[in-house]
Request: fold
Amino acid sequence: MTATVQPTLDGNVPTPSQSADYETWLAIVWPVFIAAAATGKVFTCYSVADEHRLPNPPKPQAQWGRLMTLLRDEGYIRTAGWACSDRPTTHHSGVRTWRGTAAARREAAA
Reply:
């Protein structure tokens, strides 16, 4: 049985808070993170996800980190340092910060 999403009163269809499968989720979030990397600004995973209201992956505890590893391994981002997380549930714990590479700028321009 497929669940349907009820549109809001203004006609907008809300985005789901969690994606059903990893590949679908990756297809949604990948271009957003490439665009964030292409700016050359330092960012955290959460800051991009929160700003763009991205859905959670099927396994949020593991797959957000996996996304960042894939982006790094593909050469789109590199480590920029550490910061205190602004995610409300982490109590300001340390998180890695990222900066985009020239490859991300080329990908976003294509």
Observations:
- The beta strands are 77-84, 94-100.
- The chain has one domain: 22-109.
- Residues 78 and 99 are 6 Å apart (CA to CA).
